[in-house]
Amino acid sequence: MLNDLIVCVGTVENTIANRSKLCRDFDTLDERSQQVLKYRHGDKLTLVQAGERMGCSGGRVRQIQAKALRVLREKTVWW
Q: Which of 7, 52, 68, 73 is 20 to 30 A off residue 25, Cα-Cα?
């Protein structure tokens, strides 16, 4: 699932290090954000489908996803 979020440039060692850091950063997200990313990027659910499972609207899922991805981008240095 997290592999879909990684854009890797460089050596295999850098790729492994980046993936490891992303996993650690993912674990720091709140449970709701983690669940949204799992539904959207792992299970490939639509916004509406993820919202139905979580008991909220597709728009709210989009907001949670955007914030979670922004947090991961801010924490993760790719070079």
A: 52
